[in-house]
Amino acid sequence: MLSPADVDRIAALARLELTDDERARFATQLTAILAYADQVQQVDTSGVAAPAAVPGAALSRGDDLRPSLDRDEVLSAAPAADRAAGLFKVPRVLGS
Hints:
By secondary structure, the protein is mainly α. The protein is 41% helix and 4% strand. It starts with a helix and ends in an 8-residue tail after the last strand.
């Protein structure tokens, strides 16, 4: 069973603020999900051949070379860019 502290660590990673009721409910739900995942991993698949193709998956294709946008032109249109480094500047997301 996941503890409320475990749920708090997961919530912090996802930047979620939880109420006490949500913390208890998610601890129960996440524990059930992990138990099910463990159950699935215990299934013996040693006699099952790998499929030649996965149904519904896109077939792989070769890459076609095509012209792209001019880097200097794109950087000159960007609101914040380091043209010397050839990079866009974006707001910090992690660790802010």
